[in-house]
Design goal:
- The chain has 161 residues and is mostly helical.
- The chain folds into two domains: 50 residues, no CATH class; 93 residues, no CATH class.
- The protein contains six helices and four strands, in the order αββααααββα.
- It has a two-stranded antiparallel sheet. Strands 3-4 form a two-stranded antiparallel ribbon.
- β3 and β4 form a beta hairpin.
């Protein structure tokens, strides 16, 4: 387990992790399990170093129920569209990150216009020929329409929290 993951897990467990005069403080101590204590002891120096970073990136927030449902729907859709399970999971995770960034970029694999490996809106997308589908390249497309399995999840969960 990496130090950032450990720090995230401790904070998710409701613990406050801080540094005071070179001492690592984890409170409330009553919430610490023996396993947590062992992990903290084994990673004390790395935790202190992480806490001292002035430009440390914020820890990622856990996925919401909506994001989990959408992730699962995307993995299934991407596998059905020819991606390996590992590639489908990696791309679905990129989609979750992209959704949080609110970039507006989409993948052809998410689009209802993709069929048989070809784009049904290739002209609207500005392609010169039908075969030019960038299924795993994020882009803005005027012909994009959310694929039905993903649209169902959006409808069932009410969209982003």
């Amino acid at each position: 387990m990496g130090v950032r993951t450990l720090l995230f897990d401790l904070r998710t467990a409701g613990l406050t992790v801080s540094e005071d005069g070179g001492q690592l403080l984890v409170t409330p101590r009553s919430r610490l399990s023996d396993d947590m204590r062992a992990m903290i002891k084994a990673n004390r120096d790395a935790l202190l170093a992480e806490l001292r970073l002035p430009d440390a990136l914020p820890l990622p927030l856990p996925w919401s129920g909506h994001e989990i449902a959408l992730f699962g729907a995307r993995v299934t859709l991407f596998i059905n569209r020819g991606q390996s399970p590992a590639d489908a999971e990696a791309l679905a995770e990129r989609c979750c990150d992209r959704d949080r960034d609110c970039s507006g970029l989409r993948f052809c694999l998410e689009c209802s216009e993709l069929g048989g490996g070809h784009c049904g809106s290739w002209r609207a997308a500005g392609y010169l020929r039908r075969e030019a589908v960038l299924s795993t390249t994020p882009q803005r497309c005027p012909g994009f329409a959310l694929a039905p399995p993903l649209a169902r999840v959006e409808g069932e969960t009410g969209g982003h929290p």
